Amino acid sequence: MTNLTELLGKTYDMFKKNIQLMLKFGLITTVVMIFAELALFFDYTRKGIDYMGEVINAVDPLKIPNPSVLGSIAVLILAIIAGLITWTFMVKIYGIITKKKYSIEDSRNILFSRFWALVGTGIMTVIFLLGLYILLIIPGLIFSFYWIFSHLAVLFREKSGLEALKYSKELVMGNWWKTVGYLFVVGIITGVIVGGVDWILNAALAPTQFAMYFAITAITTFVTYLASFFSMAFTINYFLALEKEKGL
Q1: Residue 92 CB contacts under 8 Å (≥ 6 apart), including other chains
Q2: Nearest-angstrom CA–CA distance, 165 and 145
Q3: Residues 6+ apart with CB under 8 A from 247
Q4: Quick one: CA dihedral 4, 160, 162, 127, positive or negative?
Q5: DSSP state of 98
Q6: How far apart are CA 125 and CA 147, in angstroms?
Q7: What is the pLDDT of residues 185-228, one digit of tens each?
Q8: H-type helices in 63-175, by residue range?
Q9: Residues 6+ apart with CB under 8 A from 189
Q10: Quick check: helix, strand or coil at residue 163?
Q11: Which residues contact 206 (CB under 8 A, 6 or more apart)?
């Protein structure tokens, strides 16, 4: 039977043993997202808009000026790049946990080979969940956790669409409350770490100039990615533990 303490310990040990790799990917994804922040800064500055005063520290969020089309496209492209790097690293983490020794190239190839199945299953999941939430909130909440492993079923079990959703649901059946509890605990742990770092930096430095805001954003983004890598590793460990428990 899957045990939260054991899963957390196993995830922490893996994270600690591969800390240099975690830091490397955290830094890479942070740099990409920082370029996105800089793209917005220069886009607003070019239009004569005070980025700190009228955007970041805006009193009324509804009155924040929109970025230009070019600025929006640049941010979107950089966000997609960061997302692809993060998903590639998820495959790498899976390889580490399962001792398959995927190279970065192997991880990227696995991701791209399942990319459209992943996108299609993701869109299907969102549509189904939106429908459930519109009808009633409770069914939407229930199936959000039933289908929580669908992306892993697509990436690592070559499932797609309804097949991936059914596979995830089969894993969670009989473990719904445990799944909610486990992921809630991990969310609290990572949320407290990221929120704590952000609060300390903002309280200590009280950024009013872009340079200081930029530095705080970079550090917080880096910590956020490290926390997300821990969450990924925990989710994969839990996924594998449920498979073993269910004999799948």
Answers
A1: 21, 25, 102, 104, 107
A2: 11
A3: none
A4: positive
A5: T
A6: 8
A7: 999 999 999 999 989 888 877 766 777 888 888 999 999 999 99
A8: 69-97, 104-113, 115-135, 137-146, 150-157, 162-172
A9: none
A10: helix
A11: none
Return d(Cα 141, Cα 137) in angstroms, integer. Answer: 6
Per-residue pLDDT of the chain (248 residues; tens, 9 = 90+): 668 999 999 999 999 999 999 999 999 999 999 999 888 888 888 888 877 777 777 767 777 788 888 888 998 999 999 999 999 999 999 999 999 888 999 999 999 999 999 899 999 999 888 888 887 777 888 889 999 999 999 999 989 899 999 999 999 999 999 999 999 999 999 999 999 998 988 887 776 677 788 888 899 999 999 999 999 999 999 999 999 988 87
Does an H or E element contain 147, and which? none
Residue 2 φ then ψ, to 5°: -65, 135
Would you say how long the chain is, in residues? 248
- Please give the distance of CA 158 from its chain centroid, rounded to a whole number: 21
Q: How far apart are CA 185 and CA 174, in angstroms?
A: 19
Q: State both tokens at 116.
A: 């459209």
Smallest CA-to-CA distance from 18 within 107, 99, 109, 112 is with 99
Whole-angstrom distance, CA of residue 200 vs CA of residue 204? 6
**What's the CA gap between 7 and 57, in Å, rounded?**
41
**Alpha-carbon Rg for the chain in angstroms:** 20
